[in-house]
Amino acid sequence: MKPVPRYTPGLSFHFLTGLYDLFFSWFMPEREIRRAILNGLNLNGEERVLDLGCGTGTLAVHLARTHPLARLSGIDIDPRMLRQAETKSKAARVSLDLRPAGADRLPFDGESFDAVYSSMAFHHFPPDVKRGALRESGRVLKEGGRLMILDFGKPSGWLASACFFAAQCFDGFQTTRENRRGAIPLLMKEAGFANVRQTGLLETIFGTLALYRGDKMRGQ
Ligand SMILES: C[S@@+](CC[C@H](N)C(=O)[O-])C[C@H]1O[C@@H](n2cnc3c(N)ncnc32)[C@H](O)[C@@H]1O
C-alpha cells in the first residue's frame, strides 16, 4: 500500500478530528464562509466542481443539495475526514465523488472541472504543496474555469495578527507563513491564473480570512 504523505489534520491533532464540525460551527463564522464561497462560485446548471481539501464535506453536501444538477467531487488527504464526509452525504441523500488524495496530486484528467474551490485547507499545505495544488487546479480546470480559495490572509491589524499567531502555534508556522504575508494571490499568479483578485474579507477570532478568485487562462 502507498504510504500517506505527512499532513496537518483539520484540528492540528488526529484525536480532535471527530470534533471538527462542532469546533468549526462554534468558533468560526461558518455561514458567512459558506455563503461567501457559494456566491463567489455562482454555479449555474450542470457544472462539474471540485472541493480541494473537502474535510468533513459540509460545504460540498450543501452545494449538492442547493445545486442538484451540479456534479460534485471532493478530495482530502485524511481518510478520517473523508469517512465523515461520506456519512454526511449519505444522510443528506446526495451523491458526492469523494476520493483520498493530496491536493498536489489530483486523481482527475486535465480540463475536467468548471470550478475548483478550497475552504480553510491552504494553511495546512507546506509551501511546495501550495504550489503543487495551484498547478494541479490549473491542470484540471477547463479553459475559463474559476478557482476560489478561502483561507487566512494578511492580518488586518495588530489584534488579527495576535489572534493569527495563536492559530499558527497550533497549525504550524511553515504551512501558514505565506498566508500571513498575504502571498496566496501571488502564488496563484505564478501558477498562471488570470484576473487574480481578493473578493472578500472576514474577521474571525483566529485572524483575517480572505477569499481569492482566479480564472484559468488559455494554455495554462
Ligand atoms: C481545516 S480543514 C478544512 C475542511 C473543509 N474544507 C472546511 O472548510 O471545513 C483542512 C483540510 O485539509 C486537509 N488537508 C491537509 N493537507 C492536505 C493535502 N496535502 N491534500 C489534501 N487535503 C489536505 C485536511 O485533511 C483537512 O480535512
The tally of structural domains comes to: 1
Bound molecules: S-adenosylmethionine
Beta-strand content? 25-35%
Low-confidence stretches: none
CATH topology type:
Rossmann fold
- Percent helix, as a range, is 25-40%
Which secondary-structure class do the elements indicate? Answer: alpha/beta
User: What is the rounded distance between the termini?
Assistant: 33 Å
User: In angstroms, what is the radius of gyration?
Assistant: 16 Å
* Count of distinct strands: 7
On the 0-100 scale, what is the average pLDDT? 91
For the report, how would you describe the main beta sheet?
Answer: 7 strands, mixed
What's the helix-strand series?
Answer: HHEHEHEEHEHHHEE
Shape assignment: globular
Query: How do the strands of the widest beta sheet line up side by side?
Result: 3-2-1-4-5-7-6
List the helices and strands and how they pair.
Layout: H1 20-27, H2 30-41, E1 48-52, H3 58-66, E2 71-76, H4 79-92, E3 96-100, E4 113-119, H5 127-140, E5 141-152, H6 158-171, H7 173-180, H8 184-190, E6 194-204, E7 207-215
Parallel strand pairs: 1-2, 1-4, 2-3, 4-5
Antiparallel strand pairs: 5-7, 6-7
Helix pairs in contact: 6-7
